[in-house]
Amino acid sequence: MPPLPRVLLHTRTAGFRHDSIPAGIEALRQLATAAGLELTATEDPDAFSEQNLAGYRAVVFLSTTGEVLTDDGRKALESFHATGGGFLGIHSAAGTEYDWPYYGTLLGARFRSHPAPQPAVVSVLDRTHPATAHLPEQWAWDDEWYDFRSNPRDAGVRVLASVDESRYQGGLMGSDHPLVWCQEPRDGGRSFYTSLGHHIAAYADTDFRQHLAGALHWVCETAS
What we know:
- The protein is α/β, with parallel strands linked by helices.
- It has a nine-stranded mixed sheet with strand order 2-1-3-4-11-10-9-6-7, with helices on one face. It has a two-stranded antiparallel sheet with strand order 5-8.
- It is globular and about 50 Å long.
- It is built from five helices and eleven strands, in the order E-H-E-H-E-H-E-H-E-E-E-E-E-E-E-H.
- Helix 1 crosses helix 5.
- This is ThuA domain-containing protein.
- It comes from Streptacidiphilus alkalitolerans.
- InterPro entries: Class_I_gatase-like, ThuA-like.
């Protein structure tokens, strides 16, 4: 029997640490198993070497914050993605590696700020993607509603979902406020980012778990 495709889950924090990380690790482990993937969770930056990453299909950054990789690790992740490896960023993955330009390109936009967590309504704009196909066009959800330093549309991403700022307090991006998007570059692997996932309870929610499962499947699908 051939070995299972492998996924590396990175949860290192060098700033704020979300208390939902353990729940996220367990949820992703379960989702990976159900999808026939082998998931390895780590906070060791030395896991990011070209030799080690060569054994993985995709890398996931779950609620990472700050500078979580060494210079060698940055080079290894860039090489991994450039040669077909998939990347999935979840929640504060957008608040990571601000001093590394390539990471900003990989992600599509960087975290700016957020108001207090509160209920709002997610507008699902693309119901053909496996991460959003199961969701209603208007999805009531409670989260930290991230504002970004730039609109990811400017980077040419495929926006899958946005939030209606008129339905909550404190949004700063205006009428076009993307939350979830993906990229499929001509060269290299796929990348996907979802800003959702602040609360512990999110990782037990059926719709959110299916959202993550679809994203994970998608980034692994064409990675080499």
